[in-house]
Structures are given as structure tokens and as C-alpha cells.
TrEMBL record:
<keyword id="KW-0472">Membrane</keyword>
<dbReference type="InterPro" id="IPR051789">
    <property type="entry name" value="Bact_Polyamine_Transport"/>
</dbReference>
<protein>
    <submittedName>
        <fullName>Spermidine/putrescine ABC transporter permease</fullName>
    </submittedName>
</protein>
<dbReference type="GO" id="GO:0005886">
    <property type="term" value="C:plasma membrane"/>
</dbReference>
<dbReference type="GO" id="GO:0055085">
    <property type="term" value="P:transmembrane transport"/>
</dbReference>
<feature type="domain" description="ABC transmembrane type-1">
    <location>
        <begin position="63"/>
        <end position="252"/>
    </location>
</feature>
<feature type="transmembrane region" description="Helical">
    <location>
        <begin position="69"/>
        <end position="88"/>
    </location>
</feature>
<feature type="transmembrane region" description="Helical">
    <location>
        <begin position="234"/>
        <end position="256"/>
    </location>
</feature>
<keyword id="KW-0812">Transmembrane</keyword>
<feature type="transmembrane region" description="Helical">
    <location>
        <begin position="176"/>
        <end position="196"/>
    </location>
</feature>
<comment type="similarity">
    <text>Belongs to the binding-protein-dependent transport system permease family. CysTW subfamily.</text>
</comment>
<dbReference type="InterPro" id="IPR035906">
    <property type="entry name" value="MetI-like_sf"/>
</dbReference>
<dbReference type="InterPro" id="IPR000515">
    <property type="entry name" value="MetI-like"/>
</dbReference>
<keyword id="KW-0813">Transport</keyword>
<keyword id="KW-1133">Transmembrane helix</keyword>
<dbReference type="Pfam" id="PF00528">
    <property type="entry name" value="BPD_transp_1"/>
</dbReference>
<feature type="transmembrane region" description="Helical">
    <location>
        <begin position="12"/>
        <end position="33"/>
    </location>
</feature>
Length: 267
């Protein structure tokens, strides 16, 4: 690497890496505006498939259901992860502490197909009808493990003297948590919620085991459609999701930039 920037080789590797990551998505976005039904043949620019998507009730219902499941499971996962993170970072190690740490981290290493089968057997044994509730519980259980890593890393670096000072001044424990602990750890909690939301929205394997009639998520709908051939409507809904993620990232970047003391947009 040169002193004034990247070497030609580094630039080539960077360009190839970016192309590997983003070229498939660019092609997908391009062909979502294809007038031809054949995804490999360009037939001109058209919004036909976005109009068809607006009329596809099953695909829209699957998208709405996925958003509802993701929001509910992410909220439940973040709540559980926050409480378990507080216990794991604030209390001394013992047998119960080690057991909680082991069980909360197990979904990180277990294959999704094993988790999906385990949840299926559990719901069948408890005679719980599979649907929105079972998918939400399964996704929340998995999301809590990932959200817990984020929150625990923040709580491990949190200065507990701030809480002690508030307690010495007569602040009750619940108020210390609401006024001191929660606001100062809110960025990590929001990040954990977004991570759990993304994992739920993207999941196919676990949802396939835990869902039931009338509760088909968007990944399941897309997978069942792709098996019969890639439809341009799938390109359209994928483009909308990419645009939504891009807008969220842009908003987050602008929000983080405005929060810097110097107001500089550069990292």
C-alpha cells in the first residue's frame, strides 16, 4: 500500500469484492423493471411487475405478516436479552449463572434445522396450534441470543458508579434503571432490536417448521415461488426491500453524523 492511498492491486481487490457483493443486487433491481416475463431477456423498461405486485394479495399478506412477526419477536427478544444481560453482567458467577449463559448462547451455534425441529416437537407436545404465535416465540428465542451479545458487550463497559451515585442520592432502583441505565444503554438496545428484527425477517428454516396454515411468511412465499421459476414480481418485492434497507441506513448515517460534536459527516 502506498503512502497516499491504496495500491492498484488493493483497488482491484476492493472492486472485485464490491462487485461480488452488490452486482447481483444491481442485476435484480434492473430486471425488476424488465417488461419481459423472462428474467434473462431484457424487453425494455416497464413498471408492469410493480403493478402486478400491488395486485398480488398473497404476496402482500405474506410481507405484512413477516413484518408483524419480526416486530413482535424482536421486541420480545430484546426484552429477554436485556434482562438476561443485566443478570449475567451484574451478578457473581455460580451454577445458575453458568447455566443461564450456556442456554442463552446455545442458539448461536446450533444449526437452524435442529432449532426448527426442536420448536416443532415442543409445540406439538404442548398442543399449541402453529401460526403467528409459534413463529414469534421461535424467532424471539433465537433473536434473544444474538441481541444478548450486543447488550452484554455494552453493559460490560457501563460505568456502574453512575447508578451508585443516583442510589446514594435517594433514587429508587426502578428509577435508576429508567433514568440512568436505560438511556445510556439505549443505542445498544436499539441495535439489538434491529438485529433481531433482521434475523426474523430473513428466516426461512425455523419458520417452515413452526408456521401453520394461513401464516406464510415472505421468505416462505418467495421460496415456494422460486421453485417454480423466478417471477419478475419477486424481483419487484426484493427491490422494494433493498430500497427500504438503503433508506434506513441512510437515515442512520445522517443521524449519527448530526450527533457528532463537529458535525462532520466523515467518520
Amino acid at each position: 500500500m502506498t503512502c497516499h492511498g491504496l495500491s492498484p492491486f488493493d483497488r482491484l481487490v476492493l472492486a472485485l469484492g464490491l462487485a461480488f457483493l452488490y452486482l447481483p443486487m444491481l442485476i435484480l433491481v434492473l430486471y425488476s423493471f424488465n417488461a419481459s416475463r423472462l428474467v434473462t431477456v431484457w424487453g425494455g423498461f416497464s413498471l408492469t411487475w410493480y403493478k402486478a405486485l400491488a395486485a398480488d394479495r398473497q404476496l402482500i399478506e405474506a410481507a405484512v405478516l413477516s413484518l408483524e412477526v419480526a416486530a413482535a419477536s424482536a421486541t420480545l427478544a430484546t426484552l429477554v436479552a436485556t434482562l438476561s444481560a443485566i443478570v449475567l453482567t451484574r451478578h457473581r458467577r455460580n451454577a445458575a449463572h453458568s447455566l443461564l449463559e450456556l442456554t442463552s448462547s446455545a442458539p448461536l451455534v446450533l444449526p437452524e434445522i435442529i432449532l426448527g425441529l426442536a420448536f416443532l416437537l415442543l409445540f406439538v407436545a404442548l398442543d399449541i396450534p402453529r401460526g403467528f404465535v409459534t413463529v414469534t416465540i421461535a424467532h424471539a428465542s433465537i433473536g434473544a441470543a444474538f441481541a444478548g451479545i450486543v447488550i452484554r458487550s455494552r453493559l460490560a463497559r457501563f460505568d456502574q458508579r453512575l447508578e451508585e451515585a443516583a442510589s446514594d442520592l435517594g433514587c429508587p432502583p426502578w428509577k435508576v434503571f429508567v433514568v440512568i441505565t436505560l438511556p445510556l444503554n439505549l443505542p445498544a438496545i436499539i441495535a439489538a432490536w434491529l438485529l433481531a428484527f433482521t434475523l426474523s425477517l430473513d428466516d426461512l428454516v425455523v419458520a417452515s417448521f413452526t408456521t401453520g396454515p394461513g401464516a406464510t411468511t415472505l421468505p416462505m412465499r418467495i421460496y415456494s415461488s422460486v421453485r417454480l421459476g423466478v417471477s419478475p414480481e419477486i424481483n419487484a418485492v426484493s427491490t422494494i426491500m433493498i430500497a427500504a434497507v438503503a433508506l434506513v441506513l441512510l437515515f442512520s448515517w445522517r443521524l449519527a453524523a448530526s450527533a457528532r460534536p463537529d458535525g462532520n459527516d466523515k467518520p
